[in-house]
Write a structure and sequence with these properties.
10 strands, 37% helix, binds zinc ion, seven-stranded parallel sheet, alpha/beta, three-stranded mixed sheet, TIM Barrel
């Protein structure tokens, strides 16, 4: 019970990529970059294991960005044709590639990375992929002109990839859908259906991560507009509770998400954010334990996974390491109280 995990990403080492950036440039190239990415996976696994994290990830070390890493091997996207578009309902501008034809996975995207990670840890392994709605919301489109139809096409490509990763022995496959917090109507119309399509037929435990984004200014400014209670999960969680997705990862500590919204996820595993990624202040184990105890009013400890609020990619590396240790220590405190 109370198995710890992370939302997905960890900071990259300074010898591999620019640090403290959401979209870092690589510092190596060619064969040296490929070797560097593998070494960074080893370091990320070791960091989590040493900290006491139970379900580990590759720290998303081999990809530059959580959405566009997957898209690099999807045909139908013109990466030369970059356009500045407003994303997440125009919350911020991003320079995005353009969909110019039917999208199709042109080959395995993350298979080698997963097999490498699998061979180098005995811990349970989780792998993260972007969700269909978030992909659709992070691309310019000149082909589908229908977000729901485009999401289903990406769901098909994601499912092919997920089935490969499943066969490679990953125990948890998580789809990141921060866009679910922005487009409530579309979530109901086609977002959940596309997510279920992406996650269908897997042996691995399926998960969806929904958050309020990295701690960048555009996001913290947006959060200021959301009032004293962030209730975006209220419409999404009942739909997820009825879905085939097994786990839901949510933002909690230091957020204004009312805790009782977790009660809408009856029957699901809940990955509760007990580490703030928008602040470099390292939580104490007591603070983490407090967040876990608060969540236990709504989620049984067997179904509760202490986690980070979101990815840690843009943080200083030593801060992320200290936060992982606090997460594991906080969970251990509560486990002790429960007599396990
Ligand atoms: Zn997130």
């Amino acid at each position: 019970m109370l198995r710890t995990t992370i939302a997905g990403s960890l900071p990259k080492p300074g010898w591999l990529a620019e640090t403290e950036k959401l979209w870092p440039g690589w510092r190596l190239e060619g064969a040296a970059l490929a070797e560097g990415k593998r070494d960074a996976i080893l370091a990320a696994l070791k960091l989590q294991e040493s900290a006491g994290i139970d379900i580990v990830t590759d720290g998303e070390q081999p990809r530059q960005h959580f959405v566009h890493g997957f898209l690099e091997k999807v045909a139908g996207i013109d990466f030369q044709k970059r356009q500045t578009i407003g994303i997440r309902k125009d919350r911020y501008k991003a320079v995005c590639p353009t969909v110019t034809g039917p999208v199709r996975r042109s080959g395995s995207v993350h298979g080698d990375e997963v097999r490498f990670a699998r061979a180098n840890t005995k811990h349970a392994l989780k792998f993260t992929l972007p969700g269909p709605m978030t992909i659709v919301d992070t691309l310019a489109d000149e082909h589908y002109r229908d977000r729901g139809a485009m999401a289903m096409a990406f769901a098909e490509a994601l499912n092919q990839e997920a089935r490969d990763l499943d066969a490679a022995g990953v125990e948890f496959i998580q789809f990141d859908e921060p866009a679910f917090n922005v487009y409530a109507d579309e979530v109901a119309e086609w977002g959940i259906a596309a997510l279920e399509r992406a996650a269908s037929g897997l042996k691995a435990t399926t998960a969806v991560h929904i958050c309020y984004g990295y701690g960048i200014k555009a996001n913290t400014d947006w959060k200021e507009t959301l009032g004293s209670q962030w209730r975006q999960y209220e419409s999404v969680f009942p739909l997820l509770a009825r879905s085939s997705i097994a786990q839901v990862s949510l933002e909690s500590i230091h957020s204004k998400v009312p805790l009782e919204l977790m009660g809408l996820l009856k029957g699901k595993d809940v990955l509760v954010g007990a580490i703030d990624i928008a602040s470099n202040a390292v939580e104490t184990p007591d603070e983490v334990a407090g967040a876990i105890r608060a969540a236990m009013k709504y989620v049984a400890p067997e179904k509760l996974y202490p986690c980070t609020n979101c990815g840690m990619a843009p943080m200083p590396r030593e801060v992320a390491a200290a936060k992982l240790r606090a997460l594991a220590a906080g969970a251990a405190l509560v486990r002790g109280e429960l007599g396990r």
